[in-house]
Specification:
Chain lengths: 322, 330
Amino acid sequence: MKRILILNSDGFPDRYSQLTTPVPTGITKQAYAEKKILKALNTYYSKISVSEIEYLNMQTQFSQVQNSVNSGVVIEEFEIKPSQSTMYTRNGCYVYNNGTSFICRRIILYIYITDLVEGARDSFISQTVFPTLLDYAKLYLNSPSYCIADHKFCIINFTERAITAPIILKNFATLYAAGMDYIEVFDNSAFNYHSVKKDLFDFHEKFSSDFQTNYNQTTKIYDGKCYSINFNDRCLTWKTDYLSSKLTRIGGKLDFSGSSEKFYWIDTLPVSIFAYNLGYKIDYSNFVNFYNTNKLLFKSTSGKIVRCETLIKYMDKYTKEN
Amino acid sequence: MHEQLILFGAPGTGKSYEVKQRLSTYGDEKKFRITIHPEYSYTDFVGQLLPDNSTGTTLFKFVPGPFTLALKEAYSDRAKDVFLILEELSRGNVSAIFGDIFQLLDRDEHFISRFPIRNNDISIIVDPTSTSDEIVLPSNFNIICTVNMNDQNVFPMDTAFKRRFEWEYVSTLPAVDAAGNVRSTLNNPKITVAVNNTRSSDLVTNWHSFYTAMNDFITDKANGLGKKEDRQVGQFFLDFGDAVTIDSYSTTQLTADAAKKHIDSKLRNKLLIYLWQDVEGYGITRNGKKLFDVSINSYGDLYSKFGNEKVFSDDFLNDFLIPNLNRYTY
């Protein structure tokens, strides 16, 4: 059996040409980058032993993968009997005949890989990770598992320089705290996962840039943009005033301006999973009311409002509200 | 599905059949079925180090058992249910078989093990993306067992083990369809019971009516044997087969006689020996009631007289069987 990292051929390996880190003589940028990525992956997952990287349009082999330029998968490849072909295909694997035997490819890990350069804002998380995460959540809402999808997720931070934007660091930290794995290729300590404390107060004190301003020492309440936390009552409450302020009308129908709804999802979902696992009550009734009030005012084809519904259903499932 | 379940009931109630029916919509690759027996051990269940010389040098390699293989399948796709089915659970020493796996049986509100255990041999096989040696049972990992708590040659189960499972009683009553109606033709042949030496006097009933009357007698404290209900038998204690069942009601004498011969043979060789050895036994009941006639002194007597002479007691015949000859119809 061998394990392979597959990255999207729409972005890779061309992206390696943007590498600015000096590459040792006699080695191409691609070979250097691949070696770095594999080393980071195999170091973090000591049992995984990924041996190579492949570049292709994943949809051609795995239709269930929510495709994007920054998406990837780790698969394991092994020989099967011809009679097992149908069974593996039925279970989401890709089976092909290499001329001498039947080979099965099975996904074991979903990957998100960042750009080499830190963006002006958190577009990687908001434009790539979150929309597809919610699409996975929708796909697996009825599964017996409470995970978002059928396999774990891992973010590979491929930026060459340390990320400094507090909002991006917070998003990485909350995703990690909510159960997503995180790997740095260039070991630039943008975000040290060991520093993520399994305590909601400490977490916000370290990663929320507005914590000093919005935390009330007397009431023990942190009043953030999208949610508030009452540390005495151990309750995290979703707020919707920010989201309401971002509603706009286009052609008589409601819409969210820009990517505001994505920023809201990023801010609320991972921290809610993190808080729930620590025993906090999650009150997202404001968001349910917001959705019920506005859902018919959106275009029926709006993917944004569908994802809002998925978010509610996933929270219902995760917190066993329904 | 989120099942950690033990189906229990008397022998022949169809516990294994019930499991099969419930899981009939799942692929075979998602079901791992084991029959437990007294020699079954932790290493059979979880896995063991065995010599491997496929590389030319003899090494010891961990060979996974069904528990580890089922767990691997569950981890390989967390969106699909996987079932570990343990038949005849009480025929093995479950404390020894489960070992440290016992710790994983305590599940949280997401049906994930509340407490992990460390086991590198298992961890490396089931989840290559794990960053530690810890393993837990995931939400899609289900365990369904069948058990007959007080059958012969069984091991006791400790309370701590038992309370980690949901328990579901499988009744001795005949199987019903989705609407709740008895499946009257299912394993329900005609039964004749001799009350003297004359065949024309034989009582005529059917298997459903006969075995339920006998079950009543087994547990009835005032007028029967007053035994525990796990001494009763279920509908499938004897499997007569569809053809024999249909033939037993044939109006063609030869066909009906051939079926009766087959049925009596099953009753004589499987049911009567069970009733003689495990139900009536050699003890004396509090009220002095007996299932068999006082003239029956040995199983040999019972075997030779069954079908030709009266073998059951008047207490059973008059108070339990005769009033219920047509409790169920074919």
